[in-house]
Structures are given as structure tokens and as C-alpha cells.
Design goal:
Layout (H helix, E strand, L loop, with lengths): L15 E6 L2 E6 L3 H7 L2 E6 L8 H8 L3 E10 L4 H14 L2 E6 L6 E6 L9 H13 L1
Helix pairs in contact: 2-3
């Protein structure tokens, strides 16, 4: 982008598909790991995936190993119940901390901090919850 010479943006097209892993049963974006690994570490992640279970939960879990220490994630539509569930799961599996929330901006916005980059920790509650979500909705 010539008007913003310091911005190094890249669009990665990826299909969304259901996948069972040790993290749970999620809709995940296929093949994004090489792009994340080659472009990280990231200080800021903006999550505006399809609403509900279609990509929200797995987005931060996939990006977590490629984040910088203390990275921030901005979650759009954060006031929705399914997005609140995703944030609670990130708190359990990544040690994420909510640093800002506002329900009055659109459908809500949340800013969370990930203290240190890591692969998500296994959580029976998160794993079972992801399967429950697929059965219940």
C-alpha cells in the first residue's frame, strides 16, 4: 500500500471446516499456520470472524503460538453470548485477560491481552464444551 509504507498487510484466503483436535471440535481455517508462522510475532490481532461458532473460537487458538508477549486481541461483536463463551475459553486455555469491554459499541467490543505466546493448554472443560456446542446448536 503506497499510502501507508509502514503497513505490511497480507490477505490469506482459507476455507472454514469442522475439525476435531486436542483443542476441541471447532470450525477452523485450513492452512493458515504457514502464513502465521512466516509473518509473526504479532502484537495485535483483530477477530471479526463469522458470528457464533463459525471461526471465532479457533481464531485466537490458531494464532496464539505466533503472538508477541503481551499481544492484544480485539474481538468484534463481543457482547453476543457465543463470543463471550469464546473469550472465557481463551481465558482458560491461554491465560488471556480482559483489559477493556464496551457493550455500547455496535454489538460490543472486547480487548484481551495474552500474557505470553504459547500453544493453548488442554482443558477438559473447553474440549467438552466445544462438543456440547456442536450438539446443542
Amino acid at each position: 500500500m503506497p499510502e501507508f509504507p509502514r503497513v505490511n498487510a497480507s490477505l490469506v484466503r482459507a476455507r472454514l471446516s469442522m475439525r476435531l483436535s486436542r483443542k476441541g471440535l471447532w470450525y477452523e481455517y485450513n492452512g493458515i499456520e504457514p502464513a502465521l508462522a512466516s509473518r509473526g510475532p504479532f502484537d495485535l490481532l483483530f477477530i471479526d470472524a463469522p458470528p457464533g461458532d463459525r471461526g471465532r473460537d479457533a481464531t485466537l487458538l490458531a494464532a496464539a503460538p505466533y503472538l508477541a508477549e503481551g499481544a492484544l486481541a480485539v474481538v468484534d461483536d463481543a457482547n453476543r453470548p457465543r463470543e463471550q463463551t469464546a473469550i472465557r475459553r481463551w481465558e482458560r486455555t491461554l491465560g488471556a485477560e480482559r483489559v477493556f469491554e464496551d457493550a455500547e459499541i455496535g454489538r460490543g467490543i472486547a480487548v484481551i491481552r495474552i500474557p505470553r505466546p504459547r500453544h493453548p493448554a488442554f482443558s477438559w472443560r473447553t474440549f467438552a464444551g466445544s462438543i456440547h456446542d456442536r450438539i446443542s446448536y
